[in-house]
Amino acid sequence: MKDLVICKSCGFVMDKSKVKDRCPACGVLAKMFEPYIEKMSPGRKRILSLDLHPVLVHFPQAFIVSVFVLSLIALAAHGGFHATIAAAISVLGAALPGVIILAAIAGLVDAKVRFRKVTTPLLKQKMLFAVLFFLFSCAIYIIILSHPMLGSRPAIFVAALCLPAIGCASILGLLGTSIINAKFPG
After folding, report:
1. Hey, how many other C-beta atoms are within 10 angstroms of the C-beta on 181?
2. Which domain holds residue 88?
3. Could you give the CA distance from residue 88 to residue 64 in angstroms, rounded to a whole number?
């Protein structure tokens, strides 16, 4: 088992043998490190260290913001450029519900490993906003399917639906960062 240390300033944990003169995370002097004992089993630690959920949540966030910006651009675009923008919105809008589902599944796995259950108060809030995000994304996809060339009115509807979806994604991000370092020992 490795000898670990933790930075008293920022909480960064690392192998004691790799400590140099400063904390690689926050830059304070190495004298701010103290011994650290991992309270999580190696198997659970290994699963969480993959960071599947934190990585996967960036896709739906990027997609929804992109669909919003592109739908605003579509309002002013004409001809071939409009067709290109509409195609990009179609691809992102079609993929959005799927990437939300993948991020949600990764979140459930992360929660189960991290807390051994998925019914904690914050996780219930995250599930509610994930469902709302998914429903808004489905509505966006339906509009895109119904109007593949995304005229002015559908582009306005898509942009309008993107705003609460972005709100849901933002709340999910804030809730997620509030519990990123929380985990049951063992």
Report:
1. 8
2. 45-179
3. 12
